[in-house]
């Protein structure tokens, strides 16, 4: 998690003031961890107005060869993490009648791609959760935006063949979209901005046999057949560690769950606006 307050530098870009940088540990798959995390952040900052759910994992490969433990990790991080985050902050935001949640999903939440079946499903779920929550809390002063990036040049896509009909963006592009969504509060925003409307038009207007032909031309099965495992090895090993840790935590004895009290998102004194960014 990074919560950073930024200031303008002389070139007009935003920089991070090291004295105002705050980090706190968070396991997005654990509701209890969310409570501890928010208690720490709000205790330090005084209030919370914006939550960015950005944690995610993306194992690639054959669906039938994916282990159950890997499936659990994908769903718990990419879906339950979003649910836990929204549940943790929504009561306090509704009480305050203000707040904004940004769920970083993916264009994989709209476009099905071979080689990432469970990941696709998790991002379809993240998009659906965002749209439904936005409607449910309309009129409360709280808004929800789903940000849908295309392939991003990060460790997440290491070893994958980028381009070839699929736009590739940088992390800074996604960050700008997130900041812009906080200002404008749209229902969804894709990165690049034309991609989601363009895909919706394809689905509405282009016959499936033409779509299938284009998919073959751009090799939409390359997540199954074209992964450079050497380039992706560091990410694969990190996912394996997370999977093992997550499996161990899931099998540990759990305390009896009761309905938690809402977390107040402001201290009585009130302080300048802050945001929390839940990242993997």
TrEMBL record:
CDD domains registered for this protein in UniProt = SDR_c (cd05233)
Its Gene Ontology molecular function terms? oxidoreductase activity
Which keywords appear in this protein's UniProt record, sorted alphabetically?
NADP, Oxidoreductase
Among the Pfam families in the record, one is: adh_short
* KW Oxidoreductase (keyword) present: yes
**Region spans: Disordered:** 241-280
Q: Has UniProt tagged this entry with the keyword Transmembrane?
A: no
Can you tell which superkingdom this protein's organism belongs to? Bacteria
The entry assigns this protein to a family as follows: Belongs to the short-chain dehydrogenases/reductases (SDR) family.
Instruction: Report the protein name in the record.
Output: Short-subunit dehydrogenase
The organism is Nocardia transvalensis
């Amino acid at each position: 998690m990074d919560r950073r307050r930024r200031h303008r530098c002389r070139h007009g870009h935003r920089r991070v003031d090291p004295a105002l940088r705050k980090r706190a540990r968070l396991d997005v798959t654990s509701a209890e961890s969310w409570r501890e995390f928010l208690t720490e952040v709000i205790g330090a900052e005084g209030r919370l107005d914006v939550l960015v759910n950005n944690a995610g994992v993306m194992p690639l490969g054959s669906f039938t060869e994916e282990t159950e433990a890997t499936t659990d990790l994908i769903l718990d991080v990419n879906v339950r993490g979003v649910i836990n985050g929204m549940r943790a902050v929504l009561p306090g935001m509704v009480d305050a009648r203000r707040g904004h949640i940004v769920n970083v999903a993916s264009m994989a939440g709209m476009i099905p791609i071979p080689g990432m079946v469970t990941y696709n499903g998790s991002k379809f779920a993240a998009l659906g959760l965002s749209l439904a929550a936005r409607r449910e809390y309309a009129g409360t002063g709280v808004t929800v935006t789903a940000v849908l990036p295309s392939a991003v040049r990060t460790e997440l896509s290491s070893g994958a063949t980028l381009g070839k009909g699929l736009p590739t963006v940088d992390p800074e592009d996604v960050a700008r979209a997130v900041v812009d969504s906080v200002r404008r509060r749209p229902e969804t925003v894709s990165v690049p901005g034309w991609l989601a409307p363009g895909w919706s038009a394809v689905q509405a207007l282009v016959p499936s046999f033409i779509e299938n032909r284009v998919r073959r031309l751009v090799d939409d099965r390359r997540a199954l057949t074209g992964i450079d495992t050497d380039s992706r090895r560091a990410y694969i090993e990190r996912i394996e560690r997370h999977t093992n840790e997550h499996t161990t935590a899931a099998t540990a004895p759990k305390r009896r769950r009761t309905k938690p009290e809402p977390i107040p998102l402001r201290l009585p004194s009130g302080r300048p606006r802050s945001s929390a960014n839940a990242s993997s």
